[in-house]
Amino acid sequence: MRLHVLLKIVLFFSSSLVHAEEKTADLILHNGNIVTVDKEFTVVQSMAVKNGKVVAVGTNETVRAWKGTTTHEIDLQGKMVLPGLIDSHVHPGGASMYEADHEIPAMETIADVLAYIRQRAEVIPKGEWIRTSQIFITRLKEQRYPTRIELDQAAPEHPVVFRTGPDASANSLALKENGIDAEFAKTHPDNVMVDSKTGEPTGVLRQAGAVLKSRGNSNARKITQDERDARLVELLEDYNRWGITGTIDRNCGDSAQAQYQRLLAAGKLTVRMRLSRGLSPNADFASVEKKLDQYAHDALFTDPHPRLGIIGVKVFLDGGMLTGSAFFTQPWGVSTIYGIDDPAYKGMRYIEDPRLYDLVKATVSRNLAFTAHCQGDGAVGSLVRTYQRVNETNPVGRTHSSITHSSFMSKQAITAAASVGIGVDLQPAWLYLDGRTLVDQFGIARLEHFIPLKSLFNANVICGGGSDHMQRIGSMRSVNPYNPFFGMWVTVSRRAKWFDASIHPQESLSREQMIRYYTINNAWLMRMEDQIGSLEPGKRADFIIIDRNLLTCLPDDIQHTQVLTTYLDGKKLESSEAE
Description:
Layout: H1 2-22, E1 27-30, E2 33-35, E3 43-44, E4 46-50, E5 53-58, H2 60-63, E6 72-75, E7 80-83, E8 85-90, H3 92-97, H4 110-123, E9 130-132, H5 148-154, E10 160-164, E11 167-170, H6 172-177, H7 182-187, E12 192-194, E13 201-205, H8 225-241, E14 244-252, H9 254-265, E15 272-278, H10 285-297, H11 299-302, E16 308-316, H12 353-365, E17 369-374, H13 377-391, E18 402-405, H14 411-420, E19 423-426, H15 429-442, H16 453-458, E20 463-465, H17 484-493, H18 511-517, H19 520-525, E21 543-546, E22 563-568, E23 571-572
Parallel strand pairs: 1-6, 2-7, 8-14, 9-10, 14-15, 15-16, 16-17, 17-18, 18-19, 19-20
Antiparallel strand pairs: 1-4, 2-3, 4-5, 7-21, 10-11, 11-13, 12-13, 21-22, 22-23
Helix pairs in contact: 12-13, 13-14, 17-18
């Protein structure tokens, strides 16, 4: 009998010990301003983390119940905690390799561009190509392409191409090597811009890749796979340094996916990566469907890893806002900035409505998320109407399909996006970097629905903040800055470089909205809103500690925010402290 009683006592205490261990957190943060980004946007004092997940949020007193002998505690001393930040649009592989051969200076003027080309002409063998990429004319003080003659003078013995997104300006040798002359221009009027008096090519090319081919340079440094991977790791660590714990690669190819998988296997993928796989929209449709089946049956889609997964596909519907080829409902207008002399020119559209409908329907029917690069309101309107048509028989919202960029919208497009339940992936830094040129080109009135963030929030459209980072390592060195606090500042201020006033300040976000824009909204675009994007019990403990209160600091101080520490799955990332 005594043995029986003793056994009961032992079992009781064993059970109590197990229960106590279950209620013991690995980490507790207290005495802080922890922004949960839940539906009520609750700000709490304390948070407990166990096994990489949030288990409790609340007051210091309520969360203290999770404290045990092994719990690590952090006294925040009033500092702010946010969910890990997410960038909805990056191209990390290419960005990390941009300066692998040599450092490339920032260029703000035509003189800067020509100086760089002259410097490259001194080290590249004669007859080999000199290329620049993603130097946007909207960001040059002169607001124009370098002319064919200027490029000829800078490098008379080298073919030269100045790439700015899909469009370009080429010198005489580059045109000659590709057989681009007045006769060629007559048969390619959409691609080759000509002098209205002589009919000779000006050097400006639309969708340049369709008519211009360039050769590699024999003296370029050969980069090994290990070096490529190391550079990507360096970039991802810099993302972490600025509080970024999740991103979407918005045009991922086979080699990029394989690279992410190598980093994941090596334990070096320190950013949650979701992939929009690139798709060639105008190929034979049987081959298009074969690609869609490949993505839909990939294990990274059917059973995604918390750090790596496929969400869907991306295509390009129109040209560039920054280059003079976005597709609009109204003409661009004659422009010395963009080299446009046709008063009826509305930009370039790459997919017609019947094919676009087939693409969206085939994608959505496989539960893949569809997105398309759409800059002009003409392209945006076409995609939204297509989503509406497909939605009549195949629910689109459940796939988290979206519009990529969607820089110029209309009231009708915003309303339609809300009704279908699609998301929008926008780049606020472009307002700062390109607003001055766009005002000069279109006038302030036509920019009423340029990056219309407040209107999207008011319509309950899920919109998320992205950078379109594609060049350089460095949050403000990159051609498209990936510093999320700079992006937040733009959403609030709507200020533009070299421009005196805010651009349509009625579209500014509140502090709460700007935080949602880079957290839970982007988690939805990643198809991970049930796992990340807010600090709620059951979700993954991705969070950052920052040096100021973003809800109360001065507006201009938002952009100067520093990340003190970044946590992923409740673990401090060693490379997370901002330099």
